[in-house]
Amino acid sequence: MLVHKIWFSLFDFSFDYKGSEEAFQTPSNFPWAKEFEENYEGIYLELQHYLASNAPKPYFKSSMVDTSKGYRTISLRWWDVEFRKNRKYFPITSAIMLKYPEITTLSFNFLGADSKIVPHCGDTNSVYRCHFGLKVPAGLPLCGIKVKDQERRWEQGKWLVFMDAFVHETFNTTQEERIILLMDVIRPEYIAKRTWITSVVLTSLFLQKRATIFTFIYKWPQWLVNGISILLIPFSYLTRKLANLFRIY
User: Fold this and answer.
1) Which domains does the chain have, with CATH numbers?
2) Which residue ranges in the chain fall short of pLDDT 50?
């Protein structure tokens, strides 16, 4: 198995991953793919029941989206932070998630009508990002995802698996909302480094969230970001452990 150097956008201000991986992976190569597909109707029904009395939350980084409420989400797991309060609404989805420990993130993601997520890169090359179509209003060229120079459409009840570290964008130019189940799965060659990887990414997300308020953070030099991050990584690890232990979410 070819092992690539672990890359984090946190430590690379170019935000331009240069790995040699394929942009898209074959979903059938992953053991969890078939089970989710076989339970498509049950998963979507759980979501509909949830939405009858609850609303998804806007993604914290609004600058990624070209409309104010274009990107919303419901988390069940987020870089190994467990959202148990949400899980009670999703017994089928949660049971499958818990069956496959390689899943580091699982959420329901909503891309609003006539909205797009601007080109951006993911946080690390140590995971594959996976999109499971739940409600797909149209195919290409109206609704889809572009990774590097390749465009793909979502299909209801089917997976798209791609290398999130590459620059990518999503678009929905229809007048209906697009809904997917989003997962990150740790790549097999990085299993032993999972705790470190998720702690680094949580540190990155913490800084990104702060930067939405304190925009001067974006002007920090790379050496300062690296130094502060090294100090924050143990804090991210401890915070996640305590949040899960005391079932905060």
Assistant:
1) 9-190 (2.60.120.330), 192-245 (no CATH)
2) 1
